Amino acid sequence: MAEVEYFGGIEGGATHSKMVIMSSEGKIMAWSEGPSTNHWLIGVDQCVTTINDMVVDAKKQAGIPEDKPLKALGLSLSGGEKEEGQKQVIDGMKTKFPNVSENYKMCTDTFGAIATVCESGGMVLIAGTGSNCQLINPDGETYGCGGWGHMMGDEGGAYWIAQKAVKYVFDYDDNFHEPPSDTSYLKLAMFEYFKVNDRIGLLDHLYRNFDKSKFAGFCKLVAQGAKEKGDKLCQIIFTQAGEMLGKHICALSSKIDKSLLEGEGGLQVVCVGSVWKSWDVLREGFLRGMLPRNERDVAIKTITLLELKQSCAIGAANLGGRSIGKKLPVKYADNATVFFSHTFS
């Protein structure tokens, strides 16, 4: 009887990460969790250390000796787009923690999401701390929009929403820009969340002790304002965020293979990230953002949005297996559910 082989996968975000260990038969052996694994934010050394800690934890739970390497480890990480960065992380793992895995496959976090739900091509739209849209056509060609981080984009993500909310408050109090609605709720929520008494106190969070994840966390209070408090300005911000997310799909519309548009449910998009929990206040703007803007855009007739039931770590493990010619028996249909479908007239 052949020895059972073990494959690992890590879904790595800008805020937190999750890992799975699967057997070659597709059985889930263990899960573990950790903080950010985005090497652009925390550095390569901290990234590889966090990965090792998660693997050690998962191996312990699975009853696998710590010094027994996994057959392959898929790393689907936020910030994992560039080959140079991939090489630095993988080389760091091999040098510093040689017993973690025999083989590695590293890619951006969007690829893991697609590989969790789709066997041959698909689209994913991430709206977590940041935002990122990725298309993989059945022929393997890939195209992306966004994913440039909070200094150059992240439109529609939690950081973008939080920053926009804070900016409305600052601009109104400065009499610099008139907001589309009253800022009272957001101002009080901002002082409460950041534990400050005035706008000057917020400068510490914006500059000297800036923490992207902490700042993005203010999005939760904006969401509460939009959904629970009925605050008009919060609702407007989420409508604007929805439009930004819809534009990601519109931007890639001309690159989508016809087979992905003409199947049941039209274009199926895997939606990942906590911002999607506020779909009811994103919806209006999202549909508007998907509309063609120029001659380069293609009208998408039908769209279906999918919510993951399983972590993208499964897709990462799947990619790790594929990288060495091993096809893990992933049950794609069981990994997501439909939460919205729409046909444009």
From TrEMBL:
GO terms for molecular function: N-acetylglucosamine kinase activity. Its EC number is 2.7.1.59. Residues 9-318 form the ATPase BadF/BadG/BcrA/BcrD type domain. It is an enzyme of class 2 (transferase). It holds the Pfam family BcrAD_BadFG. InterPro entries: ATPase_BadF, ATPase_NBD, NAGK-like. It comes from the Eukaryota. PANTHER family: BADF TYPE ATPASE DOMAIN-CONTAINING PROTEIN, N-ACETYL-D-GLUCOSAMINE KINASE. Belongs to the eukaryotic-type N-acetylglucosamine kinase family. This is N-acetyl-D-glucosamine kinase. It comes from Branchiostoma floridae. The gene is LOC118414158.
